[in-house]
Design goal:
By secondary structure, this protein is α+β, with helices and mostly antiparallel strands. It has helices at 8-24, 29-35, 40-46, 69-82, 86-103, 106-117, 232-268, 280-307, 314-338, 349-360, 367-379; strands at 122-125, 141-145, 148-159, 166-172, 182-188, 194-200, 210-221, 225-226, 270-271, 274-275. The strands form three sheets. A four-stranded mixed beta sheet has the order 1-4-5-8. The protein has a four-stranded antiparallel beta sheet with strand order 2-3-7-6, covered by helices on one side. The protein is globular, with a radius of gyration of 21 Å. The chain binds flavin-adenine dinucleotide. The site of flavin-adenine dinucleotide (FAD) has 23 residues, from strand 1, strand 3, helix 10 and helix 11.
Amino acid sequence: MAWTFYTDEQKQLAERYRLAAREHIAPRVREVDENDRLPQNLLERLVKPPFSLTALSVPKKFGGLEMSKVDVCIVAEEMGYALPCLVPFLEIAQLYTHVLKYAGTENQQKRFLEKLATGAKGCYALTDEGPGSDPTAMKTTAKRDGDFFVLRGKKRLITFADIADLFAIFATEDPSLGADGISAFIVEKGTPGLNLAYHCKALGLMGHRAWDMDIEDVRVPVENRIGERGDGLRLAFKVLNKTRISLSFGYVGLARAAIEKAVEFARTRVVQGRPISEHQAISFAIADAAIKVEAARLLAYRAAVLSDKTDRHRKETSMAKAYAAEALIDAVNVENRVLGGYGGDGRYDAERHLRDAYSWISAQGTIEVQKVIAGREILGG
Ligand SMILES: Cc1cc2nc3c(=O)[nH]c(=O)nc-3n(C[C@H](O)[C@H](O)[C@H](O)COP(=O)(O)OP(=O)(O)OC[C@H]3O[C@@H](n4cnc5c(N)ncnc54)[C@H](O)[C@@H]3O)c2cc1C
């Protein structure tokens, strides 16, 4: 489907990714869902053209595609439609790219962005064992020891930690400073002390594989701190303000898939001699869900357009993320209602869509936290 308000280039971009996903990803969806793992040969394909999911916004001088935020969002919608765990996959590369673009030295950008452009995979360890929505309560510490920092703590729900080549880890250099003590570090795979403690088995979003990590005296060279001492949390929030927009488009992609299935079923399911689509109870439910999904895309599109011009769009990003998450939940609920007894049947996509949606909506901050941010932006304080 081509959105009428997109430029011709944007429509072509969506079409390219849609066709590539239909050919290479759609046949693997069930396998990924059943095994909760992205197969190695699919992973290898995803980091190369026509996908290049780790290189989307890496600058061209480091070998990336240097896409605009709007274009990354268009790709995220197609991945959300095809196989939602690919949105976290591309999002983590976005998190890295933005962290390095904002705060990396020339040398750090070259070292790490060139790796991303050639398919290195990352993970992003912000959420701590303490309350996840409040990273200022972080307990993971970074203590200076000569030319190294020594990191120690516990991280939760770290997506793709098992396949990561690069680990962005947030840790406090001085817990008494709260938010102002937190710094960001990049740690390379194989560094002793990076331990996967527990595979968080989710209800859905299979293939994204999140892990609790024990970080036990991990020694990081001082040159791997990104930004200044205490800049980490401001950096993390600045970056999330960008990536939550493409995540919202990922939600829209999955919601679009759910509505398409509901429509297809409603048109073809005949009960008492009539397709169920002829009942207003069914058509209104689908129309209401579709209205929200289209509105979610527009809100997220507004945030993406702003994001290509400025960094000042916290209200627009948080509104887009909260609304897209709620629109997604509505879409998968309606899909499952419309399918009646087939809704929970594993042979139909509706059941997977429902699991994926509920497992996904808290990533990069819950709906409530987005409303807290939007509320502060609207009301002040
Ligand atoms: C699929 C998935 C992938 C993830 N991947 C990563 C990753 O790669 N790296 C990473 O660092 N983290 C990751 N996370 C963690 C994610 O960022 C946290 O789950 C999220 O920030 C919420 O934290 P929490 O789960 O500890 O919830 P809590 O903070 O314990 O919140 C529990 C409930 O309280 C509500 N709440 C909290 N504070 C407020 C408030 N001020 N006002 C109103 N309500 C509030 C929340 O909305 C929620 O309903 C992932 C999560 C998911 C679901």
